[in-house]
Write a structure and sequence with these properties.
The chain has 502 residues and is of the alpha/beta class. It folds into two domains: 323 residues, Aminopeptidase; 153 residues, Glucose Oxidase, domain 1. The protein is built from 14 helices and 20 strands. The longest helix is centred in the middle third of the chain and has 20 residues. The radius of gyration is 25 Å and the shape is elongated. It comes from Hymenobacter aerilatus. GO terms for molecular function: aminopeptidase activity; metal ion binding; metalloexopeptidase activity.
Length: 502
């Protein structure tokens, strides 16, 4: 860390005077609670972060898929690093672990699908959009792009209906979200009209989503036990999604649709990994600054350009390595409040670990002062980043946002992209990481991220593609925010009337 950076950090922690102008009043109110610059920031070293990330993103962990032995093996490695750093276990029963069950509902491997002369493997040659029990043989009718006029010309009752995907979003959401909603909603309309099955065929735009995301359907659906989406469904009309090159034969007249789909359900173990560094203040040590991330990714899947392992270097080995570095800093120089570190399992399966931990914390829920969440922090432009939860309606603590903005201004000085935090952003990125369950409980929460990129959820998300200098700065920014919160007299105030848009 250079001298200029040290001086800036000192200014931040002594006065919080360098934040954006709109934060000045809150800074003035809390100026008496600031502390000296932490000497331990030097414990956050790029070499350590790079070493740890290369371990977690290595092929030996096969992509750390939630609910698999690969996730558990990687979790054991993380727990061992916590122990070697010297943090106390804060999981269940005096361990670093909080185990929980995730439920998986999927089609059985013996499920079958045939359209005309084409024998298709469900969720390999053709996607089954939702697991369902169904045994159907029916005539197939093609209705073009399924405009009301086209459907109105055809009697769909008792038939399997094939149509080509068309259209584009008009309400600002991403095309991917629009497409998945279209598959659901248009299938429901045709089923209501009497169709016994619905077959979608991709156009060129939908094909790009099919190529990138169709692999997720093979896994089925995941949730916590009791979640509606993983209950074994009653028999319902199957919804099939075909690639674009199927159009030439799917539109032919006089074909039969035949399928025999069977659903099965399993419970798998996943795990949260939890450690703490006790605070030094007799009273404030009972409160926690929670540093959050997730250790899982997508596992091993069908090869893409010869690579079958989705290593998840940016998503989210970056967050995992960052938290280990922050632990070293807090171990070297504890704060007044305690620091709590939680690696959430099965995030990629629907924020399952954070949903479970926020509802079943190993410390009193009311003792969690803030949540600082690390999610994908090592790609894109070296001078840009984002702080999600910093603008309404996602902001639930102006105090916390002021501290985080001041830490950035005094430290790395990232150019912050606020577009991704707006409710109008097409990706809905705020709703897709582990801070969300805590924010829904009203706990002040923000997410540190360098945003999406072309390698997101592909086998190309490799350790060699990470910008380690940027990741180190992101880690320091997160640490300095947490350090400031951990040493204030007062916990950051919650935003009155906080309510998310969905």
């Amino acid at each position: 860390m250079n001298i200029t950076h040290k001086a800036a950090v000192s200014c931040l922690l002594l006065g919080l005077t360098l934040a954006d102008p709109h934060t000045a009043s809150a800074q003035k109110k809390n100026r008496q609670t600031t502390t000296k610059a932490p000497k331990a920031e030097a414990a956050i070293r790029e070499a350590d972060i790079k070493r740890d990330l290369y371990v977690l993103a290595d092929d030996k962990y096969r992509g750390r898929e939630g609910g698999t032995l690969d996730e558990l093996r990687a979790s054991a490695w993380i727990a061992e690093q916590m122990r070697s750093i010297g943090l106390e276990p804060a999981g269940d029963d005096g361990t670093y672990f909080q185990f929980f069950s995730l439920q998986r509902t999927r089609l059985t491997p013996v499920s079958t699908l045939r359209i005309g002369s084409h024998q298709l493997r469900p969720n390999h040659d053709a996607v089954i959009v939702a697991p369902t029990n169904a045994s159907i043989t029916a005539p197939l009718v093609f209705v073009g792009t399924a405009t009301p006029a086209e459907v109105g010309k055809v009697d769909v009752k008792g038939k399997a209906v094939a149509l080509q995907i068309s259209g584009a979003p008009t309400d600002g959401i991403s095309y991917r979200r629009y497409l998945f909603a279209k598959l659901r909603d248009q299938a429901a309309e045709l089923t209501k009209a009497g169709a016994v099955a619905v077959v979608f065929v991709s156009d060129d735009k939908a094909q790009a989503i099919y190529d990138h995301w169709s692999h997720i359907f093979e896994r089925g659906r995941y949730g916590l036990p009791g979640d509606a989406n993983v209950q074994v469904p009653a028999d319902q009309a199957p919804v099939v999604w075909l690639p674009a090159d199927a159009l030439s034969w799917a539109r032919q007249a006089g074909q039969q649709f035949s399928t025999n789909l069977k659903v099965e359900t399993f419970a798998y173990p996943s795990v949260n990994i939890v450690a703490r560094m006790p605070g030094t203040d007799a009273q404030l040590k009972k409160e926690y600054v929670l540093f959050s991330t997730h250790q899982d990714h997508d596992g091993a899947r069908a090869p893409v350009a010869g690579d079958s392992i989705y290593n998840g270097a940016d998503d989210n080995a970056t967050g995992c390595a960052a938290l280990l570095a922050i632990m070293r800093a807090f171990k070297q120089q504890p704060a007044r409040r305690s620091a709590l570190f939680v690696y959430h399992g099965a995030e990629e399966r629907g924020l399952l670990g954070s949903r479970y931990y926020s509802a079943n914390p190993t410390v009193p829920q009311e003792s969690i002062v803030v949540v600082l969440n690390a999610e994908m922090m090592g790609r894109n432009d070296p001078d840009s980043a984002a702080l999600l939860g910093s603008t309404p309606p996602h902001r639930n603590s102006q105090d916390l946002v002021d501290i985080a903005l001041a830490a950035n201004q005094a430290g790395p000085r990232f150019k912050l992209d606020i577009e991704w935090d707006k409710p109008t952003h097409p990706e809905g990125w705020y709703f897709r990481s582990d801070h969300l369950p805590y924010a829904r409980l009203g706990i002040p929460a923000v997410m540190y991220t360098s945003l999406l990129h072309v390698d997101y959820h592909t086998p190309k998300d490799e350790a060699s593609r990470i910008d380690y200098a940027k990741l180190t700065k992101m880690t320091q920014w997160m640490y300095l925010t947490g350090w400031q919160v951990a040493n204030r007299d007062q916990r950051p105030a919650r935003e009155a009337g906080f309510k998310l848009e969905r």
